[in-house]
Each structure stands twice: as structure tokens, then as C-alpha cells.
Amino acid sequence: MAEIAARWPFADAFVPEDDAIDAAREAAQQFGIEPVSPATGAALALAAAANPSGSMIEIGTGTGVSGLWLLKGAPEAQLTTIDVDLDHHQVARSVFQTAGHPARRTRLITGTAADVLPRMNEWAYDLVFVDADWRGVHGYVETALRLVRPGGSVLVSHVLQQGRVASPTKRDPTTVAYRELLASVRDREDLLFGLSTVGDGLLHLIPR
User: Which residues contact 29 (CB under 8 A, 6 or more apart)?
Assistant: First the structure.
């Protein structure tokens, strides 16, 4: 078990992060936000690189850690990122600019995802990343699957909840919500899916 547990910090340490991501990660710590891990960020970049000049939506901007990783994989893409907190967006906008991403490629929308997402065009995006409040994760994923083009990717972070999802005895509301999400997609024939243990768990869905 100790060897297994050692894999996660090794995977994170394997991935270098630049100054902009370091700054965004430090700001996240100050806000009390849990951003994606370095290894998860690298997985996002790889997924984004499948469509390097495409369109992406991020549900849950935070301070820009995951957005920077998405843009690292697809620097010519258009990123729309949604967060309810204006202070988060001010930091994210700054780190995007510091990293050299022009404002025309990073659209930051301040508001709740429940209000913003219905205004987005369906089947118009190559990638949707969900890193938002657990209470709405089912709805966000269903909406994301309507927004993404056939063959595009929907990615959901933190789905293993520090390993609690794998333990049937863990019944707190957050853990149950992610366990039910995983169960809901497992038997769907209209999706290709994979569950990675990278970071805190990354679910990857591709509509057929």
C-alpha cells in the first residue's frame, strides 16, 4: 500500500510547472481553493492538444491553474471559463496575461454555471472541463455532454474524493454525489469513458 500511495506524489513531482502556474497555485492556496494537481493538469493539456485551435469551456475557473494547463495544451484555442467569484477571475485574468495568452482567447464569465451554461451553443465545443461545486455536478456533466461536439471531450475532476468514492462505507453527501455520477455513466452506450486515478481522479467522457 505504501508503494501505491507513493505513486501520486511521484506523478505530481514528475510534471514541471511554470511561473504563471506557480503564481496561480499560490493564489488558490490563499483563497482556500483546491486546484487540480500538476499531474491532472498535464492530463488536461494532453486532452486539449487533440484540438489545438478549438473551443473549450471550463466550469469553475478558480485562480486559473486548470485554465493555464488547458491553454498549455491548446495555445491557439478559445477558452471560456465560468466562475461565480469575481475575485477569482481577477487573479485568473492576470495569470493568463502573464503567461502570454491574449485576452481575445480567454473569455471569463462571472456568474453561476446554472445561469450561464444554458446560453452556450450546443455541440459547439471541443472540450468541456467540469471542476465545480459537487451539488451541481450531475447537471453540469449532462449540460457539458450537450455542449461538446461528437468526439469531443468532457472531463470531470476530483471524482475519487481522496479515495472515499471507492469505499462503500463512506456516505457523506459529496462522496455519494460522485459515486452516483460514476455509476450513472458506466452503463451508457452513448459514451466512451475512462476513469484515471491521476490527482484526485479524472473522469473522461466522449460522446459517440
Answer: none
Number of domains observed in the structure of the chain: 1
CATH number reported for the structural domain that contains residue 175 in this entry: 3.40.50.150
Question: Which has more confidence, 61 or 3?
Answer: 61
Q: How many Cα atoms are found within 13 Å in the side-chain-facing hemisphere of 8? A: 15
The CA-atom distances, in angstroms, between 202 and each of 1, 84, 167, 178, 199 are: 21, 23, 17, 11, 7
The boundaries of the domain holding residue 182 are 2-207
Backbone phi, psi, residue 84, to 5° = -80, -15
Which helix (H) or strand (E) segment is 54 a member of?
Answer: none
| 160: its cell numbers | 475519487
Mean pLDDT to the nearest integer, 25-34: 97
Q: How far is CA 51 from CA 47, 149, 185, 190, in A?
A: 8, 11, 24, 21
Q: Angle formed by the axes of helices 19-31 and 86-98, to 10°?
A: 170
Sheet containing 55-59: order of strands: 106-110, 78-83, 55-59, 125-130, 148-157, 202-207, 191-196
Residue 34 pLDDT exceeds 80: yes
Write out pLDDT tens, residues 165-203. 999 999 999 999 999 999 999 989 999 999 999 989 999
In tens, the pLDDT along 118-132 reads 999 999 999 999 999
Question: 3-state DSSP call for residue 35?
Answer: coil
| pLDDT-derived band at 48, boundaries 50, 70, 90 | very high
